[in-house]
Amino acid sequence: MLQTVLPPLLLAGGPSTLVLEGGTHNPLAPPFEFVARAFAPLLTRLGARFEPELVRPGFHPAGGGTLRARLAPPERALPLELLERGALRRRVCTLGLALLPDSIAEREWAILTSELELAPAERRQLSFTDSASPGNFLALELEFEHATAVLTALGARGIAGERLARGLAHEARAFLAHTAPVGEHLADQLMLPLALLAGGRYRTRDPSLHARTNAEIVNLFL
User: Distance (Å, rounded) from C-alpha 90 to C-alpha 31?
Assistant: First the structure.
C-alpha cells in the first residue's frame, strides 16, 4: 500500500504524512527495514524526501502494525546513476523478536557468525512487546560506497531460527558473489520512481520476471 500511494504523492503540490496499519513484516511485501534503509535513501537521491518510521511491528498473519511516513516531492528532481556498488563499508545484522524468547536470537546469531563471520559489533537486536502476535525477522544491512543492500528473512510457525539464519547467509553470499549494486527486488521497485521523476540508470543482475514485466508495463505508459 505504501508503494502504491507513493507515486502520486511524489508528484503532489506539497508534503504528506501517511499512517498505515497492517503487516510491516510479511512474506509478500518489502519489510520495513528494506523500505527504510535500501529504498528510501535512493528516493532521497532523486530529490524527494521520504522518511519512514516503524511505530509498531505487524507480523503475518495477524498484522496490527503501524508505519508512519513523511514525504515531500522534489523541488528539483535529480537523475539516479547507480552502476557500481563500491567498497563494502559496514555490515549490520538486525535480529527482531516479538513476544518470543531471546534464545531464538542467540541460535540465529550463532549460525550467522559461523556462516558470515559477523562480529559482535555488527549485531543489533530489537525486542518488541507491543506486537499483536509473535514474530521473528532477520535483516542484514550491507552498506557500500554507493548503495545499501538490505537482505531479509522472516520467521514463520514451524521454521526453526537456524533454518532462517542459514537462508539469509545463503542469500548474502549469492549477493556478494556479483558486483551489481541493485538487488533483485529493488530492481523492479526503482523503475516507477525513476520513470515519474528524473530518470536515470542502474545495474542489476539477472532481472526477475517481475522486473521484466514491470519494465514492459512502464514502457507502455511512457
Answer: 21
**Total-model pTM:** 0.94
pLDDT tens by residue, 103-132: 999 999 999 999 999 999 999 999 999 999
Residue with cell string 545463503: 170
pLDDT in tens, 159-207: 999 999 999 999 999 999 999 999 999 999 999 999 999 999 999 998 9
Closest to 70 measured CA to CA, from 156, 24, 12: 12
How are beta strands 80-82 and 65-72 bridged, if at all? unpaired
Q: At what angle do helices 102-116 and 161-176 cross, to 10 degrees?
A: 30
Separation of alpha carbons 80 and 93, rounded Å: 27
Q: What is the largest CA-CA distance in the chain?
A: 52
Q: What's the one-letter identity of residue 208?
A: S
HSE (CB half, 13 Å, CA atoms) of 197?
31
Q: Is the pLDDT of residue 28 over 90?
A: no
Task: Write down the catalytic residue from 146, 170, 178, 210.
Answer: 210
Torsion of CA 51, 1, 10, 182, to 10 degrees: 70
Active site residue 210: yes
Which segments within 121-211 are labelled E, that is strand?
Answer: 123-128, 135-144, 148-154, 200-202
Could you please report the per-residue DSSP string of 56-120? E--BTTTB-EEEEEEEE--SS---EEE-----EEEEEEEEEEESS-HHHHHHHHHHHHHHH---G
Mapped onto helix, strand or coil, the DSSP state of residue 209 is: helix
